[in-house]
Please model this.
Amino acid sequence: MKVCVIGLGYIGLPTAAMLALEKYKVVGIDINKKVIDAIYDGKVHFFEPELENILEHALKGGNLRCSIEPEQADVFLITVPTPNTKSRKADLSAIHDAILGIGPLLIEGNLIILESTSSVGTTENITSMLQQIRPELKFPVYGTEGSDVDVHIAYCPERVLPGRILEELITNDRIVGGVTATCALKAERFYSSFVKGNCVVTDSRTAELCKLSENAFRDVNIAFANELSTICDKHNIDVWELVRLANHHPRVDILQPGPGVGGHCIAVDPWFIIESAPAESILIKTAREINDNRPNVVFARIQDSVESLGRDVSDLVIACFGLSFKRDVDDFRGSPAVDVVEKVLKEGFKDVMLVEPHLKHILPGKQFSSARLVDSVEALQHADILVLLVDHEEFRTLDTRLRKAAIVIDTRGIWN
Model:
């Protein structure tokens, strides 16, 4: 069986490599030729443990090829990015481009599976697009049994954690939503051939909203912890102690607060729900606003610290620990730590030190040109203010007794 994986990013490339090791014939498609050239050079354009080794075996085994143009296949997996626009609307243009690319290639018996995070109804919309592109083929109609069709279409979102993608692609349960019942079963048979977790069958709309709901649920819970942190600051209470004590209740499990929410899932997916049902998603929208505002809250604490030192900001050195959106990854997409640093750089500090073990060079852009990338020891010994933004494992073992800083702002609670 031949599988065409469209989009070789954080999900598509590990999926393509893993399927190749499972003896599928795989062609990976990406519009960025530099990505494809890097893959053939044995290099991965993002960090994921063991991915380069698996990719090397997949290429040498002959089961994986890459191209900028889609090819005919038995199964088409769409794993392209779906970001938010500046106005918080879902940008599904990459999905539409993928559909336009594969439409002319379809033949009877094909299976199309959309894995990209999508608004409710997107899988049905691409079905309608394909029916217009290929009127001679019979496509499924949502809500029917759909056994008498030429091309089956389903939605199956990924549920993986950066740093554990290769493991979780196989071990995690999958929600498989078909445009019709027959589509769902055909897609379920495909995933069951390599997924060790359960493959739970439903319809495409439910699967789409399920993916969005999972990340909105996490976002709401993080917002609760972050709001508690702000309340604790007002009452001069240690939020970490509060959370520890509250979680002794057998039915309470409060998450840890932080400087905000980043990445391409939790910070993005709730807006898909809000866009589709603005009047009905009040709690979800409020949680998003709380978490989006957290970099401003952290920056306000930095400004208060400068004032408390009684010195001009141009005479102070500040060190910010961590830039990625979460610990122990090199993924900086939507990172609240980056937001905080951007604000700090506009304040006019004498020196802004950045400590990020997963970064070899300063991030591109004029806003970072005045910062210096240093190691932990230099930051501890020379900074007047320390700001911990990401709880990388390396930072947990630092001997903060070496610090010069009069003020430590720990947004993750690992130095308390």
